[in-house]
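Build the 3D complex.
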Amino acid sequence: MATLTRPARPGEDDAAPRPLPWRRMAGVTWRQHRIALAAVAVLLGALAVYLWIVGTSVHHAWTAAITCHPVGSPACQDLAATFNGTWNNMSIPTVLLQVVPALIGAFVGAPVLARELETGTFRFAWTQGFARWRWALAKLAALGVVLAAAGAAFGTLLSWCYQPYSAAANQDLGLYGNTPFAVAFGLREVTFPAWALAAFATGALAGMLIRRVVPAIAATLAVYAGLAIAAAALLREHYLTPLVTSNPNLPGTAWLIAQWWTKDGRFAFAGNPPDSLLNQFCTFPQSPSGKGGGPSGPPGPPGPTYAQCLAPHGYANWMSYQPASRFWPFQWIEGGWLFALSVLLIAATIWLVHRRAG
Amino acid sequence: MTALTRPARPGEDDAAPRPLPWRRMAGVTWRQHRMTLAGVAVLLGALAVWLWTAGTPLHNTWATAAACHPASSPSCQNLISAFDSTATNKFMGSKGAGGVLLQLIPALIGAFAGAPVLARELETGTFRFAWTQGFARWRWALAKLVLLALALAAATAAFGVLVSWYYQPYEGVGGQFLGLNENTPFAYGFSLREVTFPAWTLAAFAIAALAGVLIRRVVPAIVATLVVYAGLAFAAAGLLREHYLAPLATTRLDLPGTTTDWVLGQWFTKNGRFAFGGNPPSSILNQFCSSGKAAGPSFAPCLSPHGYVQWTSYQPASRFWPFQWIEGGWLLALSALLIAAAIWLVHRRAA
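Done.
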């Protein structure tokens, strides 16, 4: 059998080296990027320890607050205040955690090709009898899979830590509750690895185009910031068509997209009522309830108070919203398009490696 | 006169090149780092345009709400609630992500501008050429670091002025009497103002320059800078800042500046002796505060008849500028120290 695999012309056997097996690339990738992977492990590990400590205390506070009986007693109010206080400590770390996928992806992805090109080692690496596009593909795929696995594990821990804040029962007990779409939506099991992969793929392509590591990292961070802001502010609310209701008692876990008013079945105005209407119909003092939610509460609809004085005059309040039950479809939609984008960017990178002259 | 400056032994005149004038280093620094400086200019320029476009309507909303008369009329309440929802919920609001994400800008600018200054020469080997130009290598390093630091500090100070302008409506004097959202100037964006923004940028730049000499590779030096900077920023915000000046303590339930003072702690005394810190324990609440809601300052009314006195320690809003200069001062001293260490390492390094 062995003779069948020999080349037809034995004279060229020594001149043409055999293709390297794919799995040896794992060893090469590990040796070239072990420092980067170790740094990612240290960063995510340190953050995981932090999340574990914080998450344990959040869960304790939440369990104590939710099992307290009777609900109105001072002791229970005290426990509720303790739980609500945990969110005040969480809000800034939550925002800062958004940069973790960007940093991981940019610092791991940009050097993969840019460092070979910048230092000139590509002349050695790409002439090893293993087609250079395979070399790039093996490294990018192996690193991408490792990053995605680590990101998914971290996202699972983060979801566990934030789970009490979007529990459905919070609203009735006076506990802080928010829609799961607003609480670190981009850092969950599906979206965290997807965003990290997108940053990694952007970094790889930027490295191939710019051919210098530091400018490629800077470009990746800029592109990622634009993509993340666009996704959060423009795209996310349109993943599925929002539901419309005129019921003013929207659950606190629903994501309010917009509200408007109709009169006699026709559109009247959007958002808050104009001054002319308020002066005409809503002459009662309404300073406390007119504010959009309490200082630590969710940005709830200010609708109900306006609705009380406008409803007798034929105005109906409509709201479009995304129900909390769509959390997982939204996770998979965001994960899906980010994954497709990452595959596309990596394919473009490999094609550039393939067609690049010498 | 020129003869006096000639070397005593004319034979060595050609062998020993004359020292470069300092000001020529400006040209060298510009040519080597113009891409970095252009990147910083583009980043800060884009953020400035965005802050300007976001801040103009905020100022307008605040001005109309503050000038509205009478304040209790429905249309005024509507204007006030419009401002409050902008102030709290929008991207740059007190609960928004924008103010927190802006904290990253000094770290990113400093790390990306500072790390390559020395590390790139060491990593690519060009230091062999750069450091043998008849201009002592420590002078070379000093000139580049000082020039870049000055340019960065000037640009970020200008940006800090704009940030202060943006946050001005949140700290408008007297706003709380109208029900307008107000906040203490210590809480959000304290490190992004005229004094602190350049100081934090300089600190990141100096950390990065030193990390570059020590690590001798650009990307690891950037990563190390970001890590050290994060630790320093958390330590300053979480531990140091509240101790810059000894806090004031009061038994008043309404602080003089109401919402603009920075409340640090709260405790109760009974008969002149410390009773408990923070919120009252459940046992006392069940005993004395069995009726009504119990939240924050409303503990005092039900506990004061029983001899409990509530104390609050706080930093008044009038200390904003002293605090700015204290934070700016120690950061500047730290940066000077780190840059001096980097230059000393360059000086003593065996070429």
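DSSP finds twelve helices and four strands in chain B.
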